[in-house]
Amino acid sequence: MSKTLYIDENVNDGIKKFLRCILENGKVKGVLTLINEGEKIAYSLISNPELIKYTVPLYPIMPLNAARSLSHITLSEPISEPIAVVIKPCEIRAFIELVKRSQGSVENIFFISFTCGGVYPIKMNVNGKINEKIDNFWRLIEKNEIDADLRASCKVCKEFIPYNTDMTIFLAGNKEINNQCRIFLNTDRAEDFAESTDGNIVQDKINTELIDELKVKRLEERKKLFEDKKIEKLGLEGLIDIFGRCISCHACGNACPICYCSLCYFDSQESEYKPVDYESELEKRGAIRVPPNTVTYQVGRLIHVGISCVGCGCCEDVCPSEIQLSTIFIKGSESIQEKFNYIPGKNPEELIPISTFDIKEFPEVET
Amino acid sequence: MRGAIFKIEKDFDKEIRNFLKKTIVKKFFGAILIPCKVPANDSYAYLLIRDEALIEKASILPPVMPIQGGRVLKSFTRLGKIDAKVAVIMRPCEIRASIELSKLEQVDLTNVTLISVDCPGVIPLSDYLEDPVKGTDTFKEAFKTWESDSVRELCKVCYNFTLTGSDLHIGILGSEQGNLFLIPVSEKGRNLLDFFNINYENDISSWENIVKKKEDERKIKRKEFRENLRQEIEGIDNLLKTFSDCLNCHNCMRVCPICYCRQCFFDSDALNLPSTNYIKRAENRGSIKFPPETLLFHLGRMSHMITSCVSCGSCEDACPVSLPISRVFSFVAENVQNLFNYVPGMSVKDPVPTITYEEEELKEFENPYIETYNIQRM
Questions:
Q1: Are A274 and A345 members of one domain?
Q2: Domain count of the fold of chain A
Q3: Which of A300, B3, B208, B295 has the most CB atoms in a 10 Å sphere around its CB?
Q4: Which of B275, B284, B297, B319 to mutate to test the interface with A (most CBs of A within 10 A)?
């Protein structure tokens, strides 16, 4: 049993009421959440409580992984006065991974998240199709079911319960979302904030049956996705087929919350072909693709970020060639993370495996 | 204008491939850079080919432009030229980008022979990828009519679709009558035709006439397009609205052939401000959008590359939120380029306005500080 804040409004209005309250009573200086300006939905840092009415904190859209924005704000110095952020579980996990890499600081950030039902591809926000979907989205949340139109990465996500969050809003499988907003208070800070509002604080516990039920469905989807794409049997030929249409724009890396390098190795002079390299490839193989290293980039990036990939799916969302990147990256990173028994963003104290050294590690793969 | 007339029997693509093969076999060229189908047959990529058998997979005019040829040639020659002579087959806007890049010292054209082709436009990448087979048919239709609504927005109103600053131009407009035109423009182009004893002193007015007609049609369309777009984007409110969906992914910059900086200023640490800055701005204005500085990025990028913008439309193809970005950029580019009486990529000789200095230039835009602010001289 843990302390839970009950607000007698539907979940969307409930969380907005809470956000407005903590802005007004000065608990936080600002709120980072999604805002709906006309038909456009984007993240915004809001300090005027009057603007909270335009926010859509739980809207199933991720314009870019918010971890990138949090890192942008806190890279040169931690935030000096508290702000609240309402972001998705994978966004918090990505941010924790960035903090482990000294790319930001959690100081003075009050995290609010929820048992996440997933998001729709960004294209559906652009072409407005999401508006037709949104009612159904909430119906499916109540039923604890997965919408077929969600991001591929969301349909197969098994980490939809947030870690390292001060507050968790109960969404997945919640039949009462239209009547009541239930928020679990995970930290003392959360209790303090909750007490400063006029909601009821009661003892409650998260319904693990509902969580398990959704997890089973997501794992089934995951299995199905990997089987459909025959991902285990891809091999080099398969990768060439999939990445053949890559235009080397590196948008995936630019959108990836984990890819934080300001200059990617694959954009550096180091990786550029010299005339002699072109000449020798021409002699050896009779032809070479220009620019070269299409598959190398993808595999290289997977090696660099695989251990920390949170499976958010932003890479796929921004790919102009519509390559099913998240499927490859989710499978690839799952294999890496399982080997190290590491869940990225779960435990802020746990070191990233690539930054630790064990003398006796993986002797079986050594040659 | 004079050129060679090539009788063609079946499709022009095949005839040109055969000709290119000969240039390799006879060792006139050491390699050919040309678009080819990728292994999965669902897109195209530039291949640098020496093995003449592989030319069979090449396509002179693929239905899409996944990577702008200027970027391809930059990747190939930025660190220097290879010793062999190389032929590059590209669309006119790709040739123009390559020439701009050579003036900006990002492309080395010394051993390169640029061959351009009349271009009916390209299908937007996402439309094509939805169904590559259907996309190919759509392109065939566009090739037949030259007035297709299925091509990129900028292709619909492009009047630089033919001969530009290349060494040799392949005229395919009007080729349904069984003629193809090889038009040498430079010494390199003439050398190639001389080597194969091709007479290029023929009258090609039939091609010229049809080109002229199409150009005039396109110019009228372009005018209409400008008028409509002006209403959509003019003024700061419209500009903000136009770019409000921007995710700040910088993909437009990544695919732009002219944006050659290895690290963009807008990706540099210069824009990583202390957290207090963002909080203060949120307080002052009530809220601040994240990621911030999206419009600043577009306007900044615009001021950096606009004199050389070739209006290829690659930026819009790559935008994940479908902003009308290429249209806005092309609109502004035309204004700026007219101001300098400059058409990018038409000749290696015309200096890029941003890297030339004239003391007496654009006086009308100067803002004399002393007069404007009525400052008393000391």
A1: yes
A2: 2
A3: B3
A4: B275
